[in-house]
Amino acid sequence: MDRAVFKIGFKNADKSSSWPGQTWKIHHLHVLRRFTQIAFILFIFLAPSLNILRYDSATRELIVFGSVWSLGINEIVNSNNLLGASQITLIIIFKGILPWLFVLSIFPLLGVFAGRFFCGWLCPEGAMFELADYLTLKLKGGRSIYSKNAKDPYLKSERKLFFSIITILCLFLIPFISGIALTGYFIAPETVWHQIMNLKFTFGVKAGIIGVSVYMFVTSIFVRHLFCRYVCAAGLMQMLFGWISPYSLRLKMDVSRISECTDCRRCEQACFMDILPRKNKKNISCVNCGACIVACDRELGKGRGLFHFRFGDKERIDNKENCKNLQPQLSPVCRANGTGREDSV
Ligand code: SF4
Ligand code: SF4
Fold first, then answer.
1. Structural domain of 231
2. How far is the centre of ligand 2, averaged over its atoms, from the C-alpha of 331 (Å)?
3. Do 264 and 282 fall into the same domain?
């Protein structure tokens, strides 16, 4: 495609073409990511009702995969069977300590092998923030409600009324439904539903639904991905372990083909974590979502984009030759990668 066309598009001279969502074909990576996000949201919402995981505060029982999880100490005491100290120690290790160690190691292990993949492909909150971004783009033309970021895609819609109604519905319904579903992790779901049907609430159910609703309402309007970058403990663990791991999944740019870059900046527009993917440096905020891969594929043709995922850290390549005879605006990008090393976002 003609480079001039890109420039015009990015500068919003022709706003209908600056974000090619209207004309681009659906990309399999995009569809797959939406599928995993929706599937995980359903799993999180349905897990208490299906007794996959919940704590029943009335009976003080932890239910895991349909069974009450306990150390079994009470049963042993009631059965009058005398156990030796070594047997009790083994019970505590295998039924008490190891399961919790496994739970605590999930996010560090994810970080070691997949970086922040969970954040980009599974996290329900991340999905909600992306939806909030999308609706703000439709209504306001920028992701942030505070200011316009120059590299935001231009998605502003003429159908203001339609998107206003959708936004209001999402703003109230999603936090409310989430409040009901997540309260089920601490109060039996049938109790929660019974109280909703009868409009008679105990303090626990009221506090659960209102607390979760307010939290989701506030974070989806005012905080969004800033929460992912600076607050979320699960995200920070994946970030830290992904950063130090030499095996972690990372986004890479094929700098040997940098001369094919049209400087359209669609990769930058696509990145909701506010990363510049072409900088090609290891960036701990990258959630491995692949939005920049999709954007570049759409620009250069399917399978011809300059980004890809790869496990592992660094690979040495000679980049000096690639930087010669480039268009002036690509020189800084090339120089940033001109250490002779293909690095990762
Ligand atoms: S750099 Fe690419 S893969 Fe990483 S968060 Fe941004 S869009 Fe997603
Ligand atoms: S890397 Fe791809 S998406 Fe990014 S500016 Fe270059 S051609 Fe456009």
1. 1-245
2. 14
3. yes
